[in-house]
Amino acid sequence: MTDQSRIDIRKVTKLYGGVRAVNEVDLTIDGGAYCCMIGPSGCGKTTLLRMIAGHEIPSSGAIAIGGEDVTALRTGDRGTALMFQNYALFPHLSLTDNVAFSLRVRGQGADQRRAAARAMLERVQLRHLADRVPSELSGGQQQRVALARALITNPKVLLLDEPLSALDEFLRLRMRVELKRLQSDLGITFVHVTHTQPEAIALADQVVVMDHGLIEQAASPRQVYGRPHSPYVARFMGGQNVLAGKIEKVTGAVAVIAAPDGTRYDLIDASGLVAGAPVKFSVRRDRIALSDAATAARNAAHGKIVNIEYQGTFVKVSLDTGRGEEFIVYMDDDEYLAAPKEVGQVVYATWKPELNHFLRGTNDSAGTPHE
């Protein structure tokens, strides 16, 4: 199934009048992978999903599934199934008949299609509710019915348009587990559009970060979160502070960066960089130490605390460093409780030089919606 469900997108553009909703996108999604496409509203992720499904036709470029060009094929002929954000269940039909509906459209006999529908309801753990109607179900149960209906045709690729957005936090976390289990059991490709970073990181084998119709980075969750390509990705995915300066000198593979306030930073991976060049780099928020007094002159920052948020496993401390962008530190909750901080207090942040990650991409937008 993996070769049959591989998706190849080549130079795909979608125009709406003069607006490029998707702009010459190149992307390969391996067969059997769980891919999450993420970005702000209007970035093009849903348009790209709908073009894979066949609900939109590219203005230019090609889409292949399993090596077959499906760019011009009808929705029902390309081996995909799309699960809509609002589930779109028929309120007057039982769960069995909802799930069996596409088999009915294909002309399959009543007994055969209902047996297949009940088997699919069993797979999503709803067989015992087969005779109920959607209004008698919880939100999470309705979502599982919609999943069963999408899967009944044995698609090569399942496409999900923000499938968890209508659920409360508890159900969302439960359904994340269900989605990953189903994808693993079925072995088919899942392409899942979301605007929620933790959701993408938790579910995906491949995360595709989009902005203004372009793919900013497509990589594993670990790479996208820990080794972002650009300032945009670092900010949008969270977990990173973005800093800027100019290369003061390069010695071997190590560069010294001078910030406008005179602070020096050591950039370990400086290949291709030259003295005098402006650079941006990031440092992970959970790898930074906070203290009440200055402990280092390099690879450091200081500022006034402007906000403190308890997050359960960590405490988010936001600093105003005077550089025009909040500097955020994730403190271990035990560490914070041992030495609590206060809003208005001046504190000092330090970290190891190897945590400085050079951002090679040039997109420096703040992740605002594209109109």
Explain what this protein looks like in three dimensions.
- By secondary structure, the protein is α+β, with helices and mostly antiparallel strands.
- The protein folds into 2 domains: 7-226, Rossmann fold (3-Layer(aba) Sandwich), CATH 3.40.50.300; 231-358, Beta Barrel (OB fold (Dihydrolipoamide Acetyltransferase, E2P)), CATH 2.40.50.100.
- It contains 9 helices and 20 strands.
- The protein has helices at 45-53, 95-105, 110-123, 139-151, 169-186, 197-203, 221-226, 231-237, 333-338; strands at 7-16, 19-29, 34-38, 60-65, 68-69, 80-83, 157-161, 189-194, 206-211, 214-219, 240-251, 254-258, 264-267, 278-284, 289-291, 300-310, 314-320, 327-332, 346-350, 357-358.
- It has a 6-stranded mixed sheet, sandwiched between helices. Strands 13-12-11-14-20 form a 5-stranded antiparallel sheet.
- A hairpin with a 3-residue loop joins strand 16 and strand 17.
- Helix 2 crosses helix 3 (110-123), helix 2 (95-105) packs parallel to helix 4 (139-151) and helix 3 packs across helix 4 (139-151).
- The longest helix has 18 residues, at 169-186.
- It is elongated.
- The mean pLDDT is 92.
Strand percentage, roughly? 25-35%
User: What's the CATH topology label of the largest domain?
Assistant: Rossmann fold
Distance between the termini: 38 Å
Spatial ordering of strands, largest sheet: 6-7-8-3-9-10
Mean pLDDT: 92
Reading off the top of the CATH hierarchy, the class of the largest domain is best stated as: Alpha Beta
Shape: elongated
Q: Percent helix among the residues?
A: 10-25%
Helix/strand structural class: alpha+beta
Topology as a string of helices (H) and strands (E): EEEHEEEHHHEHEHEEHHEEEEEEEEHEE
Q: Number of helical segments? A: 9
User: Number of folding domains?
Assistant: 2
Report the CATH superfamily of the largest domain: P-loop containing nucleotide triphosphate hydrolases
Extract low-pLDDT stretches. none
CATH architecture of the largest domain: 3-Layer(aba) Sandwich
Radius of gyration: 24 Å
Mind describing the biggest β-sheet?
A: 6 strands, mixed
User: In terms of quaternary structure, what is this?
Assistant: single chain
- Number of β-strand runs: 20
